[in-house]
Protein: Helix-turn-helix transcriptional regulator
Organism: Lederbergia citrisecunda
Amino acid sequence: MSKELSYTIEEVSQLLKVSKLTLYDLVKKGEIPVFRIGRQIRIDAKDLDNYILQLKTNGSLKFPIEPPKNDTRSLDKIVISGQDLVLDILGKHIEKHSSFKTLRAYTGSLNSLISMYNGDCDIVSLHMFDGDTGEYNLPYIKKILVGYPYIMLNLLSRKAGLYVKKGNPLHINSWLDLNKENIKLVNREKGSGARILLDEQLRLHNISSKNIQGYDYEESNHISVASAVSAGLADVGVGSEKVAKMVGIDFIPLINERYDLVVLKTPETERLINTVKNILSSTQFKSEVNSLGDYDTSQTGKIMYETE
């Protein structure tokens, strides 16, 4: 295994036949050392071999996870789950203004929330539309984080809608147009905010997913969906405005979605919550987000809900 210099989280996940969230948890606990190349987390092949050897010897080998004597910084590692670029900016600010080290899990909203319930994530980003209330995020949080105290803070708002080919040749302008026979969809994976938005809109408009060509054709992120539309593999997909501009396709805005952060409230997370609050309310953070374009920071940092 040591023939390779280093591995990505995904590569190690495939090698060990475990989920990526399990690996993030091991990294968070300091059981597997990691290093960064840009935004990417990598695991040295020798460290992976040592970890496997440790398991084979019933844990008789231990990693030195205490900081060096000349390094007084905490080794606290936190996992931020979600896919928007702004979460990388948030992670950078957290590391700059605290002793936390941030790891990123690029997982959809619902699966991220379930991971938080299972103790695998520290900050979860959500954009889940509830068709019965017209509300974002809170109806889902109340059903999943049962018995847990938490705080929900607004990260930003953004427009969500439909990706279509340049010039919109099929004249797709609403959710109802997805029901047309000649329209092929590219979908998002189950548990993503975009998938939930689509499914709720189909339900509200009494459209059966069985009637939609391409409903089972899934991609795992906005860029892949937009790229599929751009390449002619599909006619339409659901996503956010910014990515449409990045890929060079047209965008049909249909809803303003709220993108929130959730953190569990415990004595251990009090410092993290205060750090995040201060960052979100800072002029510098909002300025960086606004410089990206197509984001609304008018409510950034606002407490949208908090349990007692």
Q: What stands out?
A: The radius of gyration is 21 Å. Residues 6-56 form one domain. The first strand starts at residue 6 and ends at 8. DSSP finds eleven helices and 14 strands in the chain.
